[in-house]
Every structure is written in structure tokens, then in C-alpha cells.
């Protein structure tokens, strides 16, 4: 990754108990007197990624990274008591635990979806949003990344045939993988997890540690089979209610998980500042993509500073 800002060890590490016996892993970075900000990682199931600190000036932000329930070093690794409402409630408990009146939320992929859902539930607690490689979790998005006639299948036909040899439609494909991932045969589980994670990596998601293939795949399929616990296109329909909030977005034009056209519609609804990364898909490790994110965080800082002066 082309680093704009240094990535170091956390100033502090916490484990916060939340509902239903879950504990969240939380890291704190940056300036304790800076603008508070939390990063919602991709997933579901990926866990916090310390490399994301590279996008944020450590002198400007009090930065929290955390692993959502069921992944990373959060415990237990389970799909039980794991849904979008609970993830939003966990974020609110983190904010309350640290005594923050308002904070900014940043999200990558599924994390962008989670940040938006939190902002819709708690708009008064949100100072600003930064979203990149946004995933909207609607039927159209699943067709784009999982379907036999979607963009991803057309870009990588050989890999797609390995991923979906029966050429199932997205709904049937998700059911098939879900069934195999929870099969009584351990070998069936592992083969399905490896195939699922290989396709996700092909789409440009971060590298998945081999030991976590099964749990991460299970958690992703848990959300997919429940349609992410959202009505179809819920985010696009509700986004206009956040248009007074400062929102910054970065998206690769060739992103194979969520089409640029869909993200552009979301940005219009939010009246967001959208930076388009041309000739790239989802590539936060790329220098051009990295610099786009750094510019967005710097602009967001200036906006937060101006807002503080007005107050």
C-alpha cells in the first residue's frame, strides 16, 4: 500500500462487552484530542485492518478501529446474535463507552453500508461520513457481483466457472453455498469456503487469512441469505434524509462488487462529494486510490474544523 500517513501500533487496545455475550476488539490510534472517528471494516467477517490508518492524518483524528461482532479478535466467532441492527447497536455502545457526543464514521465495502445504517438510526451523533468501495446489498448489486450475467462473471469467466459451475442465479447460488458451508461434512465446508473466498479475492477484496476462510465465508453467507436484514434498495430510498450531513465518497469506476452507476445514484441522494478513481476497480492499496482517500480525509478534517469554529 502507498502510505501517506504512518501506521503504527495502537495507543490502546480495548475489549468491550456488548449484548448477547459478545466482546468487541477495539484499537485507538492518533491524537487523543483530535476529531473522533471510527472505521467500519469490510465484510461481513473481515476484522479490523490496521493498514487503513494510512488514510488518516494522526495529528488530526482520534481514530478507532474495531472488529465487528463475530470476526477478527472479537468473540465469539459466531453467526448467532449477528445482524445489522445489532451491529448498529454495537457502534452506539462504543460511542457511549468513550463518552463521545458526536463522531465521524468511515466505511469500506460492507462497512460503508453499516456506517450509513448507523447514520440513519443516529443522525444527531454523526459529524460526517466517508465511504469507499461502497456496497449497497440490493438485488441489483448481487446480480452485478455474483450472477452469471453480471459484470464480474464477464470480466473473469474462467474463475467464475470454478465459483459457480452450475451457473446458478444469485439467490440459488447463495443457498447452495450456505448449505455447503454448514454441512455436517467438514471437507465439504472447507471446499465451499475456499471457493467462496477465492471469488471474493478475485473481486478485489482484501486478502483473507487461510485459517479464517470458513468463519468469514459463513458470516458473509449468513448476511446474504438474510438479504443483509434490509429491504431491497433501502439505503438508496432513505439516503436523502442525510443530505445535510457532510459526506465524502471514493469509488473505482471498474468496481466489480458495486457498480459505479449505483454508487453515483447514492452520492446524488446524499449530495456527497464523490471522487471517481478512473481505470481502477477496488484497489485501496493502489497509490492513486490511496491518495484519493487521503484527500477525502483531509477535506473532511477542514470541514470539521470549520464546523467547530461556527459552534
Describe the model.
This protein is of the alpha/beta class and 311 residues long. 41% of the residues lie in helices and 16% in strands. The protein has eleven helices and eight strands. It has helices at 84-97, 110-121, 139-146, 151-155, 157-163, 170-181, 186-202, 213-225, 234-238, 260-270, 287-310, and strands at residues 12-17, 23-30, 35-40, 61-66, 103-108, 126-132, 247-252, 273-277. Helix 1 crosses helix 2, helix 5 runs antiparallel to helix 7 and helix 6 crosses helix 8 (213-225). The longest helix is centred in the C-terminal third of the chain and has 24 residues, at 287-310. The chain is globular and about 60 Å long. It starts with 11 loop residues before the first strand and ends with a helix.
Write the layout of secondary structure elements.
Blueprint: E1 12-17, E2 23-30, E3 35-40, E4 61-66, H1 84-97, E5 103-108, H2 110-121, E6 126-132, H3 139-146, H4 151-155, H5 157-163, H6 170-181, H7 186-202, H8 213-225, H9 234-238, E7 247-252, H10 260-270, E8 273-277, H11 287-310
Parallel strand pairs: 3-4, 3-5, 5-6, 6-7, 7-8
Antiparallel strand pairs: 1-2, 2-4
Largest sheet: 8 strands, mixed
Strand content: 15-25%
- Judged by helices, strands and strand pairing, the structural class is alpha/beta
How many helices in DSSP terms?
Answer: 11
Shape: globular
**Low-pLDDT residue intervals, each spanning 5 or more residues:** none
Span between N and C termini? 37 Å
- How are the strands of the largest sheet arranged? 1-2-4-3-5-6-7-8
Rounded mean pLDDT score: 93
Amino acid at each position: 500500500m502507498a502510505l501517506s500517513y504512518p501506521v503504527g501500533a495502537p495507543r490502546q487496545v480495548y475489549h468491550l462487552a456488548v449484548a448477547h455475550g459478545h466482546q468487541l476488539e477495539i484499537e485507538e490510534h492518533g491524537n487523543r484530542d483530535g476529531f473522533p472517528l471510527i472505521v467500519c471494516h469490510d465484510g461481513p467477517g473481515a476484522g479490523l485492518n490496521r493498514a487503513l490508518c494510512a488514510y488518516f492524518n494522526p495529528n488530526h483524528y482520534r481514530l478507532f478501529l474495531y472488529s465487528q461482532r463475530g470476526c477478527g479478535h472479537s468473540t465469539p466467532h459466531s453467526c448467532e446474535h449477528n445482524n445489522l441492527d445489532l451491529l448498529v447497536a454495537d457502534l452506539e455502545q462504543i460511542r457511549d463507552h468513550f463518552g463521545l457526543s458526536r463522531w465521524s464514521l468511515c466505511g469500506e465495502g460492507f462497512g460503508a453500508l453499516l456506517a450509513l445504517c448507523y447514520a440513519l438510526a443516529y443522525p444527531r451523533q454523526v459529524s460526517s461520513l466517508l465511504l469507499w468501495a461502497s456496497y449497497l446489498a440490493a438485488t441489483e448489486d448481487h446480480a452485478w457481483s455474483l450472477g452469471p450475467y453480471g459484470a464480474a462473471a464477464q470480466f473473469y469467466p474462467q474463475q467464475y466457472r470454478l465459483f459457480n459451475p452450475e451457473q446458478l442465479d444469485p439467490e440459488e447460488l447463495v443457498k447452495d453455498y450456505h448449505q455447503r458451508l454448514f454441512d455436517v461434512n467438514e471437507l465439504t465446508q472447507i471446499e465451499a469456503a475456499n471457493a467462496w473466498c477465492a471469488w471474493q479475492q478475485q473481486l478485489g477484496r482484501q486478502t483473507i487469512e487461510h485459517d479464517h476462510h470458513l468463519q468469514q465465508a459463513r458470516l458473509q453467507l449468513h448476511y446474504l441469505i438474510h438479504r443483509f436484514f434490509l429491504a431491497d434498495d433501502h439505503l438508496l430510498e432513505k439516503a436523502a434524509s442525510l443530505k445535510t450531513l457532510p459526506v465524502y465518497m471514493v469509488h473505482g469506476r471498474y468496481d466489480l462488487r458495486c457498480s459505479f452507476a449505483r454508487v453515483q445514484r447514492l452520492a446524488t441522494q446524499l449530495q456527497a462529494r464523490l471522487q471517481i478513481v478512473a481505470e481502477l476497480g477496488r484497489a485501496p492499496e493502489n497509490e492513486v486510490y490511496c491518495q484519493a482517500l487521503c484527500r477525502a480525509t483531509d477535506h473532511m478534517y477542514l470541514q470539521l474544523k470549520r464546523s467547530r469554529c461556527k459552534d
